[in-house]
Specification:
Number of strands: 2
Number of helices: 11
Subcellular location: Endoplasmic reticulum membrane
Low-confidence stretches: none
Helix content: 55-70%
Protein name: Sterol O-acyltransferase
Mean pLDDT: 85
Structural class: mainly alpha
Keywords: Acyltransferase, Endoplasmic reticulum, Membrane, Transferase, Transmembrane, Transmembrane helix
Main location: endoplasmic reticulum
Active site: 188
Distance between the termini: 65 Å
Radius of gyration: 23 Å
Length: 293
């Protein structure tokens, strides 16, 4: 994305003819600066506060260790044996998914703080980068359009300037928005696929499908009933992150524990065929108020 931004800047200046191209020092600074929009000059602070830099990097380290604890405590006990047995009860899968809801949201919030606050502010302080507005108060919003804009202002600004605005004169706003969502969803999915070693587009379906659907549904209703739709948005975060933690873990351990077969490949999910999810016969429900003394 940074290479695209500086390539666009160079192309525009080559078209002008008389404009000076960015120097190599400008490129190096832009490469490490917490922004995706190239400028020859940025607002700069007067000095580097190294105590602030150290504190932010300590926060990053602490969050990495805490996420490791969440993995050891909530992922491995429920999913590390997934695929070792040929069959698994549906109730076991459902319990594992519910167990991942709360740690999934905690990991989601920790990841947000780690990258969009601690990491960016650390590099901004070291480079004396003056613009520290990396996000806005997305947690109070009741409209998904507002959430997608406020969640990550750095990426939002790049998508707006390099995709939405160039397409807007030739297409409608709805088509431009759809293309922006598709590009963002595909980019996220490519990163996950290369990291995990398999293609399993759960995140793409959640944010590129459900998230896109919620844009028009919360456009007017979110402004009319802000408290209700803010609650619904947080419920979607809980459910969505629980599914992400569960489904990606199921696929990862299914590929690791299930015996290899001829149909195994990068794109076909292994967890759909191994293990077999079965319903437990004669399910019974226990009354929680039926207390035996």
């Amino acid at each position: 994305m940074k290479l695209c931004a500086i390539a666009v800047a160079c192309a525009n200046r080559c078209d002008d003819g008389g404009s000076k191209l960015p120097s190599f020092s400008h490129f190096i600074y832009f490469l490490f600066a917490p922004t995706l929009l190239y400028r020859d000059e940025y607002p700069r602070t007067k000095r580097i506060r190294w105590d602030v830099v150290v504190s932010h990097f300590l926060e990053v380290t602490a969050i990495i260790f805490y996420n490791s604890f969440l993995w050891e405590r909530f992922i491995l006990p429920y999913w590390s044996d997934y695929g070792k047995e040929p069959k698994v009860e549906a109730g076991t899968v459902v319990r594992g998914m519910f167990a991942c809801v709360l740690p999934g949201v905690i990991s989601f919030l920790c990841g947000f703080y780690c990258i969009l606050h601690a990491w960016h502010n650390a590099f901004a302080e070291m480079l004396r980068f003056g613009d520290r507005l990396f996000y806005e108060d997305w947690w109070t919003t009741s409209r998904f359009s507002r959430y997608f804009r406020a969640w990550n202002l750095i990426v939002h600004s790049w998508l707006r300037d390099h995709i939405y605005h160039p397409l807007a004169p030739y297409t409608s706003r709805a088509v431009s928005t759809l293309i922006v969502f598709l590009v963002s969803a595909v980019a996220h999915e490519v990163v996950l696929a290369l990291s995990f070693g398999f293609f399993y587009p759960v995140l793409m379906i959640e944010f590129g499908g459900f998230g896109l659907l919620m844009l028009p549904l919360t456009a007017s209703s979110g402004s009319r009933y802000p408290n209700v739709f803010n609650l619904l948005m947080w419920l979607s975060f809980f459910i969505g992150n629980g599914l992400l933690w569960s489904l990606y873990s199921m696929e990862y351990f299914a590929r690791k524990n299930c015996p290899p077969s001829e149909t195994d490949n990068f794109f076909v999910p292994k967890s759909w065929s191994c293990p077999e999810v079965v319903l437990k016969p004669n399910w019974t429900f226990q009354n929680p108020f039926d207390i035996i003394y």
